[in-house]
Design brief:
mainly alpha
Length: about 180
Amino acid sequence: MQPIEIAPRLPLWNFLGKFQKSVMAVTSILIVGMICYAVVARYVFGSDFYGSEELIQMLAFWLYFMGAAQGSREKSQISADILTCYISNEKLCRAMHLIKDFLTATICLLVTVWAVKFVAWSFVMMPRSAVFKLPMVIPHSAVALGFILMSLYHVTYFVQDIMSFHREHISDGTMKNGGEA
C-alpha cells in the first residue's frame, strides 16, 4: 500500500506535504547558516554570536518534528516488525499489522493530547528563552503540530488498513462461496 492512498483526491495532503518539506528545508538552511556564521565570527573575526544555540535549538525543534511527521507520512520510520518474519499465515500477518497500526495510532493520539496540553500551558505561563527572551511556545508548538500531523497520518493509515483488510475478507468469502457474497 502506498502512503496516503487518498492524496490525489484531497488537496489537504498536498498542502501538508509541501508545508512540511518547506519547513524542513528552511530550518535546515537556517541552522547550517547560523552554525557557519558562528564559526566564522568566532574563528575569523574573534567575536561571538551570542545566543546562537538558543536560536538553533528553536529551529531544530521545528526541523525534527516536521521530519518526524514526514516520516509518518511516508511510512519511513524505523520499525521492528519481527513478527512478519515468523508468521507464515498471510491473514494472521495482516491482523497483526492492524493491531500494530491500532497501537501506533492510539499511542500517537495520547502523546498528541499531552503535547497540546503542553502548548496550552506554554500560552498560560509564557516561559521565555534565556538570551533573546523569545516565547518558548515557538518550539513547544512544533512538538504539538508534529504530533498532530503524525496522529493524522497514523489514524488515516489505520482506517485504510481496516478497509483493505475488510475488502480482502469479503473477496476471500466471495471466492470460497463460488462468487456469492
